[in-house]
Design goal:
By secondary structure, the protein is mainly β. It has two domains: 77 residues, no CATH class; 131 residues, no CATH class. Helix content is 8%, strand content 59%. It has three helices and 15 strands. A nine-stranded antiparallel sheet has the order 10-9-8-7-15-14-13-12-11, with no helix packed on it. The mean pLDDT is 89.
Length: 208
């Protein structure tokens, strides 16, 4: 497996063993936010491509093309020490009106919503809609389809045991048993004086 390679506005990745390759060409400026910072460490979120033209090829099949998204988390603190028990994340990768949101709940409760390049401090985030009262914008989510539902962290830690012996002993059970559900839905962004913008929405809920 190869690490992603960034060249200007383009990110490329491939795995020759699996016969898969992809290319993402950025069409919106990058975003970033410090999600958590204490004396123990920090979590920095870098959204390299809020919206990108994406092309993914599997073997000799015709490439799958559409609007893509690329992000990266830089963590120097174990996530179970951040004080949250629920994470919601989602993105509406529309070329003219991208929206990205992160919502943490627990003893640490914070959210970040990016409306294009603007960070929105007042917002309501649910599995049915994202409401931005100050700009009177609403992203409506309809006809959701579950695309993934599993205990992904348990699987990841299981695959790392041979590389990091003992990792299963230092990771709290409640974190190992975290449940992730990811949906794809139809999105409609309604905004005063603007045409309705439509596109796919990917969003997920992780509970610990």
């Amino acid at each position: 497996m190869y690490e992603p390679v960034e060249d200007g506005l383009t990110i490329r990745w491939e795995d020759a063993g699996l016969g898969i390759s992809g290319k993402w060409e950025r069409t919106a400026p990058p975003l970033s936010a410090v999600l958590h910072e204490t004396e123990k460490g920090r979590v920095v979120w870098n959204c390299l491509q809020p919206v990108s033209r994406c092309s993914i090829r599997l073997g000799d099949e015709k490439p799958v093309e559409g609007w893509g998204y690329v992000e990266c988390l830089d963590m120097t603190i174990p996530p179970w020490e951040m004080g949250f028990n629920e994470l919601r994340w989602g993105r509406f990768a529309h070329p003219d009106a991208p929206l990205v949101w992160i919502d943490l709940k627990g003893s640490l409760s914070r959210h970040w919503v990016f409306d294009g390049q603007t960070i929105v401090h007042v917002a309501t985030i649910t599995e049915e809609c994202i409401q931005l009262p100050e700009s009177e914008k609403t992203l409506l989510l309809s006809d959701p389809v579950v695309v993934e539902e599993k205990n992904k962290i348990m699987e990841v830690v299981g695959s790392l045991i041979s590389w990091v012996p003992g990792i299963e002993h230092i990771t709290p059970l409640r974190f190992l048993q975290a449940k992730e559900t990811k949906w794809r839905a139809n999105g409609k962004l309604v905004s005063p004086g603007q045409n309705i913008r439509e596109g796919w929405v990917i969003y997920e809920l992780v509970t610990f």
